[in-house]
Amino acid sequence: xxxxxxxxxxxxxxxxxxxxxxxxxxxxxxxxxxxxxxxxxxxxxxxxxxxxxxxxxxxxxxxxxxxxxxxxxxxxxxxxxxxxxxxxxxxxxxxxxxxxxxxxxxxxxxxxxxxxxxxxxxxxxxxxxxxxxxxxxxxxxxxxxxxxxxxxxxxxxxxxxxxxxxxxxxxxxxxxxxxxxxxxxxxxxxxxxxxxxxxxxxxxxxxxxxxxxxxxxxxxxxxxxxxxxxx
Length: 231
Known about the structure:
Blueprint: H1 4-12, H2 16-29, H3 44-53, E1 64-68, H4 76-82, E2 87-92, H5 95-108, E3 112-116, H6 122-128, E4 131-137, H7 142-149, E5 153-163, H8 167-180, E6 187-191, E7 200-206
Helix pairs in contact: 1-3, 2-4, 3-4, 7-8
C-alpha cells in the first residue's frame, strides 16, 4: 500500500490543494461546529477524505451525483474535488450544516449545489429530478436508506452506500426491503485497495424498476381521486 501522502496525490491529482484546504477547514472548525468528533482530527485523511474520494472508482464519467445526508460534506466534497467531471448535489436537512457546506463550496470554488431538506421530501425530490448516482455515508440502515435514495435515481441508476463491517449482514437482512422499493440485488464492493490501509466498503444497488405500491392501497389517478370503472 502507498503511504498517505502518495495516495492523496494520486487520488486528488490537480485538486490536491483544494483537498488540503478542506482538511484544514475540518481541522479548524469541524469539532466546534459538531461536524466531526475530537478523535477524528488526527485521521482526517485516511478515515474521511480518502475514504470518501475513492468511491469515485465506481462512478462513470460526467454523471449526476446526489449525496444524501452530506453532513460535513462526506463523501460529496472530496468526491467533487477528486472528480470535477461530476455534477454533484449535496442534500442536508440541518441548517447549520447547510451553512457549513455553502461556506466550504465558496472557499474551495467548487461547482456544487446544496439543497436543504430530506431525501424523502417531495419538494426535495422535485428539485433534484432523477440522478445517475446517489451516495450516502453513515446515514441509516440499508432498508431505510434504499427507500430514501432509490426514488432519486433514474432506472438503471446506482446507489452507493458507504458502510462498515456490518455491510454484508445488512445486505442479507434488507435485500427483500430493497427489492420492494425498486432495487436490484445489493452487492458489496471495496474501493481504494492499495491506496488506503482499510479499503472503503460500499453497498451497490441498481434501481431496476419503480417502487412497488403498498399492499392494500388502490392506485389513484393524477388528481388523487380513486379511479372508478365507467359503466
